[in-house]
């Protein structure tokens, strides 16, 4: 643990509980700390915007506010501050949900001790520090991928052009085997172009910050279906969808997200014509968008692999693709502070679920992009 004085925020509507936390912190960190106490969600979010904190203690129940919703809003803003969620009564479901939404730990108020607080806070700060380092390394790799994909397009364009000239110019002078080899080279160059395009798409999906605004997903879906018109027609796919809601997001990124999911649903279908169903269900302040298909499905042991870049479950001869589409989807959803999960049964189709924040006038000023890394300078917080 660092020797500098810790800056800690607690968002809790109970003054008594905040005083208990302060007492535990005083025993755990005798060198001193600054504890800022706010009693509601909006005050907590404002404090985070204005000051750098080393850790946040977030109550699950905040009067009319939902602590888990506050947690989602913090992460949706791009803030990676360490967060420890706690509640009056231990609840496994709440703990699991808090960790899924980005908390580093979960504690029960009745079991707070100085030792438990010190251990949880130290672990939370260390986890975030490691996550930041990993993000920086990943960003370096993505920057390299972007440059490499861009620079490789030039030579590849030359190769493809020369092969086309050879096929057109001397095709009649070559024997059948030579012409077939040239056509294979041309086909390989087209596949390489598609791979480079997918690689650049993945690398660019998080390179710039974007404002979250109200996006009509029905409008987005119409654009996606227009983009995929030829693929839908050639496959005989049937598209089923109801009216979709408005969510907070970036329309370009969400178009890419839905297009990747629907294109996958159409592609991974062998015998019967694809049937793709797009739906939406409200869950609190969020919408869960589903994209279901009647395709080949995914074996349980492979469900954790499908969102990793270049992890393919099938050969190119079975199903063409870059192996980057779902990784790009995960990246887009993460940048929106949402959740992407999948349910599937081998031979019985697959359903992807995307959780996004419902559009609301009071939350249209959020920004997505590269995570905001908090500074370490002490802030002028009022001590409790």
Automatic annotation (TrEMBL):
Entry's EC annotation: 2.7.13.3
Coiled-coil segments: none
Pfam families: HATPase_c (PF02518), HisKA (PF00512), Response_reg (PF00072)
Entry's Gene Ontology BP terms: osmosensory signaling via phosphorelay pathway
Name the UniProt record assigns to this protein: histidine kinase
Residues in Histidine kinase domain copies: 147-360
Lineage: Bacteria, Pseudomonadati, Planctomycetota, Planctomycetia, Planctomycetales
Keyword tags: ATP-binding, Kinase, Nucleotide-binding, Phosphoprotein, Transferase, Two-component regulatory system
Gene Ontology MF annotations: ATP binding; phosphorelay response regulator activity; phosphorelay sensor kinase activity; protein kinase activator activity
Residue span, Response regulatory domain: 7-124
4-aspartylphosphate found at: 59
InterPro entries linked to this entry: BphY/WalK/GraS-like, CheY-like_superfamily, HATPase_C_sf, HATPase_dom, His_kinase_dom, HisK_dim/P_dom, HisK_dim/P_sf, Sig_transdc_His_kin-like_C
């Amino acid at each position: 643990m660092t020797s500098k004085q810790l800056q800690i925020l607690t968002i809790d509507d109970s003054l008594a509980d905040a005083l208990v936390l302060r007492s535990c912190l005083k025993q755990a960190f005798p060198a001193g700390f600054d504890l800022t106490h706010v009693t509601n969600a909006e005050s907590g979010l404002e404090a985070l915007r204005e000051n750098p904190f080393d850790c946040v203690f977030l109550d699950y129940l905040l009067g009319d506010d939902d602590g888990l919703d506050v947690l989602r809003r913090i992460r949706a803003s791009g803030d990676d501050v360490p967060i420890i969620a706690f509640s009056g009564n231990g609840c496994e479901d709440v703990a699991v949900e808090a960790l899924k939404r980005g908390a580093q730990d979960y504690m029960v108020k009745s079991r707070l001790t100085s030792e438990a607080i010190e251990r949880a806070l130290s672990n939370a700060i260390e986890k975030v520090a490691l996550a930041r380092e990993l993000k920086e390394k990943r960003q370096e790799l993505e920057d390299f991928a972007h440059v490499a994909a861009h620079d490789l397009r030039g030579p590849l364009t030359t190769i493809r052009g020369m092969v086309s000239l050879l096929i057109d110019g001397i095709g009649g002078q070559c024997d059948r085997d030579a012409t077939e080899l040239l056509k294979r080279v041309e086909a390989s160059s087209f596949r390489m172009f598609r791979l480079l395009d997918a690689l650049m798409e993945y690398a660019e999906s998080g390179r710039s910050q974007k404002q979250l605004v109200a996006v009509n997903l029905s409008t987005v879906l119409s654009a996606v279906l227009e983009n995929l018109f030829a693929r839908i027609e050639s496959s005989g796919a049937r598209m089923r969808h109801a009216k979709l809601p408005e969510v907070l997001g970036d329309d370009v990124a969400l178009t890419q997200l839905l297009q990747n999911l629907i294109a996958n649903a159409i592609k991974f279908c062998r015998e019967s014509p694809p049937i793709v169903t797009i739906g939406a269900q409200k869950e609190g302040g969020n919408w869960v968008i589903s994209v279901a298909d009647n395709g080949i499905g995914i074996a349980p042991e492979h469900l954790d692999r499908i969102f990793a870049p270049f992890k393919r479950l099938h050969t190119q001869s079975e199903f063409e693709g870059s192996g980057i589409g779902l990784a790009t989807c995960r990246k887009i959803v993460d940048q929106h502070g949402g959740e992407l999960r999948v349910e599937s049964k081998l031979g019985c189709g697959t359903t992807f679920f995307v959780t996004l924040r419902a559009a609301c006038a009071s939350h249209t000023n959020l920004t997505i992009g590269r995570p905001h890394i908090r500074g370490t300078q002490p802030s002028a917080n009022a001590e409790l």
